Amino acid sequence: xxxxxxxxxxxxxxxxxxxxxxxxxxxxxxxxxxxxxxxxxxxxxxxxxxxxxxxxxxxxxxxxxxxxxxxxxxxxxxxxxxxxxxxxxxxxxxxxxxxxxxxxxxxxxxxxxxxxxxxxxxxxxxxxxxxxxxxxxxxxxxxxxxxxxxxxxxxxxxxxxxxxxxxxxxxxxxxxxxxxxxxxxxxxxxxxxxxxxxxxxxxxxxxxxxxxxxxxxxxxxxxxxxxxxxxxxxxxxxxx
Length: 240
What we know:
Shape: flat
Oligomer: single chain
Order of helices and strands: HHHEHEHHHH
């Protein structure tokens, strides 16, 4: 598959999750998104440079990208800047007055940016905050109501396998072939009921969710916080 690693060669992938930042992992899944790839191609076909850059910026925000559309076949995780390339609002902060009111959380929104990604992230931050406080031994937090909405978690230790499964399926590899290569120690056979094939099926479902939008959850784990204007605009530049 042009622009992506050979799924059967583990040397072409990160060795472990810590090899990439959260931002880089999120990009690796987004660049495999078919809708994103199609949008990038469509924008590059616009002949007027100014209009192409305008469309690049506008469409990029649909994917929560703060830097315009990046080439999904050329720009790999290792080529990204250290700054976060995704919209990183709202800001979470603890003010002095909040220390005396632990049930309060201060969030800062930027109304010049799209609201949908900010609201999604705000909801996730609040969920995480509730979970943190619920684990506290303080009596203040012992009566917190349980979360009524089930939150899916990202299995960071499996990110490498998720990418390899996506790339394998893209080039037509079978479940048996993938299971044999990725999980050689598991019982396996060319049927659905064996452990190796089941593992592939579960990994594929998780990987597709990350590719199709849940990559945003990876960004929430990003410890590096940058303002959007710290990232240089990179919308593909001149038409190739």
